[in-house]
Specification:
The chain has eleven helices and seven strands. The protein is α/β, with parallel strands linked by helices. It is globular.
Length: 274
C-alpha cells in the first residue's frame, strides 16, 4: 500500500495537519522526467510509494509503459507523457492531464560521444545543455506561477559529481551538470518565501543502462575503484534521496546539494593512489 505524505508528516513529531491539508497531501502530483528507466524509474516508484500521483515523462512510450506498470503493480497511480525536453509541445498535454504539479524532478539527461571537447559534435553539446539545463529551466518557468499561487512546491534536480569535480572527456556533460548548481541556488532564493524548495541530488557512479552505453568499461571500473565505499550506487539509493527532498520532512531545506556518491571525490588522493 502506498504511504501517504500526511502520515509521514504526523509521524515526524510535527503538529497534526488539518483534514483539508491531509487530503491535499494525499493528492500531490509529481512530474518525473527521464522516467523510462534507471534512476528516473526508481524515482517514480519511490514517489508513488509515498502516496504521490506520478506523471512519467520520457522519449520512449514502451519504456514509460514499463514504468507505469511497475508503479501500478505496487498500488500507485501513474500516467505517462511522451515528450522531449528540448521542445515544449508536450506542455499542453501536461496541463490537460494535471492542472497542478506539486513536485517536479528533473532527472532526464543526455550523453554525447565520449571524447575530448574538440571531438564532440556541436549539436551533441547543444543537446546535452538543452536536456539538462534549458529544458528544465523552461519547465520551472511554466510551473512556478501555479506553485507560487498554491504556496507549495518541491523542485529537485538530479545532477552528477561530474558537475562538481569535472570529468575528463566529458566536458559537455560536466558543464551542463555544473550549471545546475547556479540554477538551483538562484531558484531557491527566488522562491524561498513562496513555500517552494529547490534542491540538487548529486549521484556518483550508478550503473544504469545509459551509463553502461556511454562510458567505457575501463573508465567505469576506475571510478568504482576510486569510490571509498568500493561499489557503484544503486538507482534506488538515489531515488530515496530525491523522495526525501520532495517530502514534508525536507521543508526547511532549500538551495542544497545532497551528494549520494559513496564518498567519490573525497580526499586529496583517490584510493587507487594509496
Amino acid at each position: 500500500m502506498p504511504r501517504s505524505s500526511s502520515r509521514s508528516l504526523s509521524s515526524s513529531g510535527m503538529s497534526a495537519t488539518s483534514p483539508a491539508a491531509q487530503q491535499h497531501h494525499a493528492q500531490r502530483v509529481a512530474l518525473v522526467t527521464g522516467a523510462g528507466g534507471g534512476i528516473g524509474r526508481a524515482i517514480a516508484l519511490a514517489l508513488a510509494r509515498d502516496g504521490l500521483q506520478v506523471i512519467a515523462l520520457g522519449r520512449h512510450a514502451d519504456k514509460l509503459a514499463a514504468t507505469r506498470a511497475l508503479v501500478e503493480a505496487g498500488g500507485g497511480v501513474c500516467s505517462a507523457i511522451v515528450g522531449d525536453l528540448r521542445h515544449s509541445a508536450w506542455h499542453a498535454e501536461l496541463a490537460a492531464r494535471a492542472p497542478r504539479i506539486d513536485v517536479v524532478v528533473h532527472n532526464a539527461t543526455s550523453f554525447p560521444v565520449y571524447g575530448n571537447l574538440e571531438e564532440v559534435p556541436s549539436n551533441q553539446f547543444d543537446e546535452v545543455h538543452e536536456t539538462v539545463v534549458l529544458g528544465p529551466a523552461r519547465i520551472c518557468a511554466h510551473l512556478l506561477p501555479a506553485m507560487r499561487a498554491a504556496q507549495f512546491g518541491r523542485i529537485v534536480f538530479v545532477g552528477s559529481i561530474a558537475g562538481t569535480n569535472g570529468a575528463r572527456r566529458q566536458a559537455a556533460y560536466s558543464s551542463a551538470k555544473a550549471a545546475l548548481h547556479g540554477l538551483v541556488r538562484s531558484l531557491a532564493l527566488e522562491t524561498a518565501r513562496d513555500g517552494i524548495t529547490v534542491n540538487l541530488v548529486e549521484p556518483g557512479v550508478v550503473m544504469t543502462e545509459r551509463v553502461l552505453e556511454a562510458i567505457p568499461e575501463a573508465t567505469r571500473q576506475a571510478l568504482v575503484a576510486n569510490t571509498p565505499m568500493g561499489r557503484p550506487g544503486r538507482a534506488e539509493e538515489i531515488a530515496e534521496a530525491v523522495a526525501f527532498l520532495a517530502s514534508d520532512k525536507a521543508s526547511y531545506i532549500t538551495g542544497a546539494t545532497l551528494p549520494v556518491t559513496g564518498g567519490l571525490g573525497l580526499g586529496l588522493f583517490p584510493p587507487t593512489m594509496g
